[in-house]
Structures are given as structure tokens and as C-alpha cells.
Specification:
three-stranded antiparallel beta sheet, about 230 residues, Cathepsin D, subunit A, domain 1, disordered N terminus, mainly beta, about 45% strand
Length: about 230
Amino acid sequence: MTQQRSKTYCSLRVLLLCVACASASQTFTLPLQEFVSVTEVREPIAKGESPEMHHGRKQVSVTEYYGRIAVGTPPQLFDVVFDTGSGNIVLPTLKCKDEVCVRHRRYRSESSTSALQLAYDDETPLEKGQTDRDTTSIVYGTGKLTGEYIRDKVCFGFGISKSQACTSTDFLGVTQESRFPFIELPFDGIFGLGLEGLAAGPNFSFINRLKANGSSMEPVLAVFIRNLQADEDS
């Protein structure tokens, strides 16, 4: 089945809230961008209709929201789509030479003093000179990513607010990435908001890491989307 794709995206303020716990109960807000992709697909063949005579098509719209995070020390900035259906943070690295990676920002582990390469998903550090390490592949719709395990500091709020929400977390550093659909997307990586069950392990879930690690932030996130008939921002 052939698919025809077109895309549009526009600026839209959405608030992603990280609610601080301890003493002040402050909130942190992150502005997001809206990306809308439109895909044309064939409609199912009706009962009694021959495949040769079937020409019905419909357009399916998918809306995604992305924002900026800082990774590493000193911080490297990435635009990531926030995905409630997965639990891993996924970022392209310099090891990925595919065109789709080159067109996006790529993570440089050697430039971060807080980066730790992991050999396996059980948090075993990669020893100096060791080449044996696990890789994993994740399928997102029609796309596929393959990467290695890395740990580094991930922060919300760099360059936006005086306060930041940060925690050390494990993520997937992409070394191979399929051209479609990622070549069409304006963001660099994926930020899974799912809990531990949707992540490669407990320390791959950013929400889980907010609960651990002595973090002063509560693992509470909220998104407010405006009423289209009201005069208000999301």
C-alpha cells in the first residue's frame, strides 16, 4: 500500500509542568511546539467490492508536541517529542552517520564530563578499551532505531528559567536510524514519558528517576491544551 505524506507545523505554547515537592511547591513550565503530519491511506475494502475497483482514500492527521531539553555537562540542547506511549529517552549520536541523523542535532558523549557509557542494560559501565556492549532496537510506527546505552544528566529549563529540573538518567544513544519517518520530523529525538514498564529498565524512565536519585522534584507532569473557542494559550 502506497502512502502519500505531507506535513505542516506551527508554533504553539503548551505547558509541561514539573511540580516541585519539597518546600516551595513551585511549578516549572516548558513551552512546546506543535507538529502536525497528514498521511493519506487507503480505506478498507467494502464487502462485495473488488480490489481492482477500490480507490477510496482518507487523510489521517497526527499531532505531536516537542520541546527543548539539555543533556550533559556542559549542556547540549535537543528538541524532543514527548511521547506518553514509550518510556525511553532516545537521542541520535555522532556514531550515527545516516542522513537522517546528520540533519538533526547529535549527542557528543566525549564532550560531556558527566557522561557514562554503559555496556549492558543492567547498568554495567563500559570499561576502557571494551568493545563488547549491548545494543537495542525500537520500532516506532514505520520507523526503526538502533542504539547503545548511555547515562548522563538531563534537564528541563536551560535558557528558559532560572530554575531547572534535572536528573541523571539512562537513555538510548542512536547509532542507526531509518530514513522514514524520522527524516520528515523537526525534532531530534524522543522523550518517553511512560513509567518503568515501558522503558528498557528502571533507570531509563525519566519519571522513575525523578522519584529516586535524591531529586527534589516530584514525578508529576501535566499538559494543558486550550479550548479552541476560547481566547487563551495552551
